[in-house]
Amino acid sequence: MSLNVVLAEDSPLMRDLLVGVLTRFGHRLAAEVGDANSLIEAVRTHRPDIVVTDIRMPPDHSDDGLRAAVALRGEHPALPVLVLSQYVEQSYAARLLDLGSGGGVGYLLKDRVSAVTEFVTAVTRVADGETVVDPEVVRQLLHRRQDPLQRLTPREREVLSLMAEGRANGAIARHLYVTEAAVNKHVSAILQKLDLRVDGEGHRRVLAVLAYLRA
Amino acid sequence: MQHSTAWRAVAQSPWKFLTSAWPWRSFLYLLSGALFGALVLTVLVAATLAGVVFLIAGVGALLLLGVSLSGILVSRVERRRLLLMDPDPIPDPHRPPAGPGPRGWLATRLREPATWRELGFTAASSAAMWWMDALVLGLSLGVPVLLATSPVDDPDAWPLVVVAVLLVPAAPYTLTVWAGARAAMTRAILAPRDGELGGQLTEVRASRARLVGSFDAERRRIERDLHDGAQQRLVSLNVLLGLARLDAEPHSSVARQLDAAQEQVTLAVEELRELSRGVHPKALTDHGLPEAVGNLTARSALPVTVDILLPYRPPAVVESAAYFVVAESLANATKHSAATRAEVHARLHADVLTLSITDNGVGGADPAAGTGLTGLADRIAAADGRLRISSPAGGPTLLHAEIPCR
User: Which residues form the Putative sensor domain (chain B) (predicted)?
Assistant: First the structure.
């Protein structure tokens, strides 16, 4: 599937690399911009399949990209948005996840682009409406909420962090080189230990897990 | 405090005290006080009377003006005299004249509170204090002398000589105690008030605050330079390596080398990220203390309860001082205290940010031992606040900081 992407990144070097990575996997760049205001304009003009944006950009060099993403989701609730940043912060993750499940949401460290294939997979998953959260965010959350999570076995924790990244059970099974049935067993054990009821859709499950961890 | 040294001397062993310079200094202080007081009283009474009498002639007004400004001269002498009792000199509380010539000098002096405080001191000192000086001198020295000489007139009065001999060692004590009290009073009245020191002290404070402010600005600049420079380049390099890896023959030696290179670059990016976050967290600049501390504690291995409620954002200097206090104390709690829980509490009340960080660890944090706590105290002091630490062996540890936000 070829996606129509609007890209916002203020560093020309990084922008060219992102264009290179995306086009190499057959995606098209509807627009490449270098600041938050042009991003909003470009989305209005091009109606892309997904927005990939840096957080720290002109005009304020603050969290302009994130604010633009929030504003864009206000205008286009189903617009998939993938946000990249040099750091991941809990507060930013929370703000993004609060966008709701109208369209896909992603929050990744910029350095994840270097794992090219996985990055492009993340882009397509967000475009498909899934939630992709950087493993670093998940690691921090797991770090913090030690108490209830201590009940989980290391393997279950591993599965949970993969769940939190928005992976389906099949993908988790492939990642861990186990059968999907084994993963199903782990997932229901996790949900049971965390007092979460089993839910059908993948990313809702993620949101539930994250909401629980964030509380 | 320096002015208590006379009294502290009194508390020493009698031999040490009696052979020290203190009794003699006190004697000189009181003697000069009595003589100078008598002189001042005479001159002032004469000048005032003459002033009233000649008021019609105009010369009188000048004399009265002189009387009202006499405090300045008297106090200057008193400050000099005080050096006998107190090695710490009192600075002159007067400002340099605002205008040139005698007129400027007069205008400045008449408007200063210090001038009138000194006049009050002069009145009190010439009306009462010098009498007291004389009285104490008379009682402690005159009475023994009188008693000792009484058998000259009446040979049967010899037991009084014994009393006199017994009274002699008491005299230095009486003298020193009163001289100490007199010196303390003088210092309390004649020392400049904070606002009067003002000029220089406010300048020192302001320059300290500027220093800390520029230090913060510098850290923000370094963080920005790292973000736009080294971090961006390393990440780009890693992406380039990733793209090259796609082109490399799978399982070839080039692919393996590219993997190894990516691993190294990824580690460098991670280290640089931690470093630059430690230099100055961007969330602090952009969103303030509660969010920055929230992100900090989210990364902390220690479960931390955060309760920060601020009605408005304090100045940047205060925010970063508070942030680094939290960061450092949580790092200490994690590394050294074996704590399992910590709490961060901050409120902004009456323009003072109060911040407390507690942990349930083993305590024993020593500000003298580590540079971390001392650095924090310095930082907070530069923002005109203060930091207190209670960390008994066995815990718990409590850090309490108060930073004014003006």
Answer: 29-190
